[in-house]
Amino acid sequence: MPDASSPLVAIVMGSESDLPKVTPAMEALKRLGVPHDVHVASAHRTPERAIEIAAQARDRGVRVIIAAAGGAAHLAGILAAHTTLPVIGVPISSGALGGLDALLSTVQMPSGVPVATVAIDGARNAGLLAAQIIAIGDPALAARLAELRREMAARVIESEAHVRRGGP
Fold first, then answer.
1. Of the chain's two ends, which shows fewer C-beta atoms within 10 Å, N or C?
2. Average pLDDT per consecutive 10 residues, the chain (168 residues; last block may be shorter)
3. Residue ranges per domain, the chain?
4. Is 75 within 8 Å of 22 (Cβ atoms)?
């Protein structure tokens, strides 16, 4: 049975080299006070580990999984195939195709195994989307998300004023 300190979001990356691209998701979740943990598991090199993470996530209290991978990017799919929790895929830019291969691999899931997909290297949005999903049943988190949106709007208004004054 999960306790109050259990992670609500599991972030799984295909390789440690993905960490810099995944960090914005961790920062967004931390900013919103959403407990999360991080794993490295490869759909191709450690498929049993990836399956184990997905299969045990609900029992650990996880409510959303974020999967970040580049190249063939099968990680989100293998995780989604082994859980009924929402899975958010983050295609990571790499190689000759700059992440387009990862985007197509992540977004083109077969019917019945959905993966929500954000933009290439869109980990921040993945973190925010995970928080929004959890906030459906958490009014305090919903309020923190609303405050974050107000802060973002205020920054845009401030930048307009700066530009109108002549900018840099």
1. C
2. 78 97 98 98 96 98 97 95 98 92 95 97 98 98 98 94 81
3. 9-137, 139-168
4. no
Total-model pTM: 0.94
HSE-up of residue 71 (Cα within 13 Å, Cβ side): 11
Q: Which CATH architecture has domain 9-137?
A: 3-Layer(aba) Sandwich (3.40)
Which CA distances in Å does 39 have to 10, 67, 93, 146? 7, 10, 19, 29
Closest Cα partner for 66 from 108, 110, 26, 15? 26
Only one residue has tokens 């107000």, namely 150
Closest CA to 122 of 51, 31, 24: 24
